[in-house]
Amino acid sequence: MSEVSMSAGKKAKANYEKIAKKKPDPEGLAIGEEAQAALIQKDYSKAKALFEKARYICEASAIKATKTAKLVCNKNAGGEKLSASVKLNDFEQDDKDRDIILPQPGSEGHVFAKQKANLPPGAENYAINTSARMAEHLNVTGGKWQTRFPPEPNGYLHIGHAKAMHFDFGVAAKFQGNTYLRFDDTNPAAEKQEYIDSILSSVSWLGHRPFKVTYSSDYFGQLHEFAVKLIKIGKAYVCHQAKAEVAASRQLLKEFQLHCARNNLSRQETPLPSGAESPYRHRSVEDNLRLFEEMSKGVWEEGSCSLRLKGDLRSDITSMWDLAAYRIKFQEHPHSTDAYCIYPTYDYTHCLVDSIENVTHSLCTLEFETRQAPNGPYYWVLHALDMYKPITWEFSRCNITYNVLSKRKLNTLVSQGHVSGWDDPRLLTLEGLRRRGYTPAAINRFCFEMGITRNDNIQHLEKLERCIREELDDHTDRRFAVLNPLPITIRNHPGGSLPVDCPSHPKFPERGTRVLNFTSTVFIEREDFREVDDVSFYGLAPGKTVRLLFGYNITCVGLQKDAAGAIVSLEATYDRNSLGSKPPKGTLHWAGSDFGHGEVRVYDKLFSVEVPGKKVATEIAADEVAEQLEDGGVDWLTQLNPCSLVVHKNALLEPIILEIAGSPLTSRFQLQRLGYFTVDKDSSVQKPVLNRIVTLKESKELVALRK
C-alpha cells in the first residue's frame, strides 16, 4: 500500500468532522479522538483509517443534532410543489455553512475577484479588476448580483445539476439578482437539440426562472475577434503538434517541475528542457494570423492544427501550459448550424462569456479550482484582453451512493443498453427522477439539506428517499394492488359483492372513503402465504386466520396444487361478523375480482455497492479500503444490481387506479404495504403501467414477512 500523505489524513479528518457535527455518535466521536492523536503523532495512515471508520459510524448512527426548518412551498408552472425557498428558524451553529459569504458586487472583494495567500514566486495575480472595467460593469448591472447556470448540452441533467441550480439561482434570488441559463455549447460532436430541450424542461420543472437563456455560440463572432487580438499581442499561436506530441511535451514539463522542487531551484530562472515547448510557439504574428484564417475557412484538416494560448510553461498550474483555444471540427452545430468549422474550447470560452454577460459570481465545482486560480488561465485570458473579471467560487460535487453521476458513465449505461434511456427511472437524471415519480419539492429539499461545502462528500441515497417519502406520506391517498396474485375462493361467500369502506388516508378521515368489493374470489400476494406457518410469520397459512385490510377476517381451509407441486389457489371461509372488529395477528392487502390487470415496475438501487468502481470491504484488507478511489481496478459495470428492476406484468389494480392510467406522471399514491407509486409515461387506459417511487418505511410486520 502506498504511503498516506498528511493532506490525505487532514482531508479524512475534514470529512469526518462534517458528518460528526450533524450525527455526533459517541462511539464515532471516541474513535475520532484516537484518529486526532494519530494525526498529531504524524501516523497519517492510522489517522486516515480511524477518521474513515469514525465517519462511517457517525453516518450510520440514528443520533442527529437538533435542527428545525420551515419549508415555504412554491409551485412550478405545472402546479407541482417546489419547496424552493426555505425559512430557517433555529439551526445550530454547525449548519451555518449553508450561508456562503460571497463578496458584494462592487466591493473590494469584487475588485480583487480572486485572492490566494501564497502565490508562488514570480506568479502574478491576474484577477484584479481595473477601476475602468469595474465602473463599466457596474454601469451595466446597476450593482445587481448576476450568476449563471452553464450546462453543456451533451446529456440530460442529473441530481448534481439540481444542486448547482439550487446554489446558482438561490444566491441571485437571495439578493434580488439575475441568473442566466447559458448553454456551454462548444463541442458540436457531443451536443444535440434533444439535450437542449431536456435541459430547458428540467430547469423549469424545478421551478427556476432564468433571467435570460443564452448560448456560448451566440458569442462565437466575438470570441473569434478576441482570438485574433490574442494572436496580435503575441498571446496565441497556431500549433501543428499531434496529441501524442503535446502529451510528451507536457510530461517533460511535469518532470521539470519535479526537478526544480527536489533541487530547490527557481522555476523562473531554470531553463526549460528541450522539447518542452511547441516548435511552433515562436512563429510570427503574421504567420499565425494567416494560419488561423485558413483554419476558419476549412483549409486545414480536422486534427491537423489548433490555436493554443501562449501561457506560462513554468507555472505550477498545468492548465497554464498552452491550452488549446480553437480546434477544427467539420460538424454541424445544433444551435449555430454550419456557420463555423472551428470551435472554441470550454477553457477559452467560459471566462470570456462570463465577462461578456457581466456575471458577478461564477460558481463552479471544485474540478475548476486551479483553472480559476488568480494565476490560472481563467483570469489570464481576461487580463490579456483587458476585460472585466467576475468573482469565482468553487464547491464540492454531488455524489450519491449506489449511483454514478458522471455524464461519461451515464452515457455508457444508456448507449450500451444497461438502462432504457436517459429517463430510465433507475438513473438520478432529473428526467429519470421525474419519471420515477419524484417531485420538485423533494429534490429542492434534498439540495437544501445537503447544503454547499468545499469538502468532498458522498450523500446516502436514503437521504434523497427520505425527502420524497416524507412528502408523500401525508399528501398521497391509499390504494390497493396485488403484484403477484394468489386466488382464494371464499367457500361461505353469499354471492355478489359485499361492500367494504376503505379510507382514502387513515390519518385524514376528512378525505373520505371509497368502496371496495369483497367478492367470492379474492387475491393476496403469493409471498403472504406459507404452507408451513411459524410464529414470526404474519401472513396466511393452513388453519390460520388473518384480516383483509379494512375488510373481513378469513381462515384458510384448503389449497390446490398443480402437477409440479406448486400452489395454484387457496380456499377460505370468512367471518361475517368480523368487519370492524379487533384484527388478528396478520393484516393483508387484497384484491377483488373487479380489479383490473396492469404492469407494475418495482425499482431498486441501480448498483449493488455503495460506490461503483470501488472495491468492497470483502475484497480487500480493511486498511486498504480508505485508499481505494473510484475506478480503483474494479469494472463498475460488473457491479450493476441485477434486481434493480422487477416487472410484474399481471398485477391486479384497484379500479380507481385504472381511471387515471391514461394520465402519466400526474398522480402519486401509496399502494398499501407495497410503497409509493406513480403512473408511467408508457401507461394507457388499455395497458396501465405503474412505477414504484420509493419503498415504505419498514415495519416489523414487513420484515417478518420477508424472513
Enumerate the spans where pLDDT stays under 50 for 5 or more consecutive residues: 67-73, 83-97, 618-632, 699-707
Q: Over the alpha carbons, how many angstroms does the gyration radius reach?
A: 31 Å
Classify the helix fraction into a percent range: 25-40%
Decide which structural class fits the backbone. Answer: alpha/beta
Largest sheet: 7 strands, mixed
How many DSSP helices? 19
Oligomer description: single chain
- Report strand order across the widest sheet: 12-24-25-26-22-23-13
Beta percentage is: 15-25%
Overall pLDDT confidence: 89
Shape: elongated
Description:
The chain has 707 residues and is α/β, with parallel strands linked by helices. The chain has 19 helices and 26 strands. A 7-stranded mixed beta sheet has the order 12-24-25-26-22-23-13. Helix 6 links the parallel strand 3 and strand 4. The longest helix is centred in the middle third of the chain and has 20 residues, at 243-262.
